[in-house]
Amino acid sequence: MQSTFRRPNDRKTFVNTKINHLAVWILIVVYFLIGWGWYTIFGEKWLNLHARTMTDIEHTHNVGAYLLSFVASIVVNYTLAVLIARTNPESVWCEYATISVFSAFETNPWPLICIDMGRPFLGMAISGLVLGAWRKGA
Predict the structure, then answer these.
(1) b/e for 107-136, b at 16 or more Cβ within 10 A?
(2) Is residue 9 part of a domain?
(3) Boundaries of domain holding 75
(4) What is this structure's pTM?
């Protein structure tokens, strides 16, 4: 699938990118909640594939992990908003090479790779579709 980009006519337009901050912040919360839902559904399988139990990881849940996850959600959604606004794509396109890089040299089973990479893929897909649709509607 090919993607077509239209370059903004002048540098000032390119630098002064308009972003719907309300949409981005709603998507930040949605992206964060996708992680909660994803591991609610696949958490048991994820633990089994790591040969762990819930008691093994109960002590690792701290505020810092959730804060880092929320900050990552902010970075992902604002990056997507800026990329969509600046590149002005005319069609949906997605190249998700991270899945191969993530486990290229590890011996993780494919179900574990799919669980680990499925959550960010779903979150980015939803965010990209919403931000892209907002851009076209504007």
Answers:
(1) eeeeebbebbbebbeebbeebbebbbebbe
(2) no
(3) 19-137
(4) 0.71
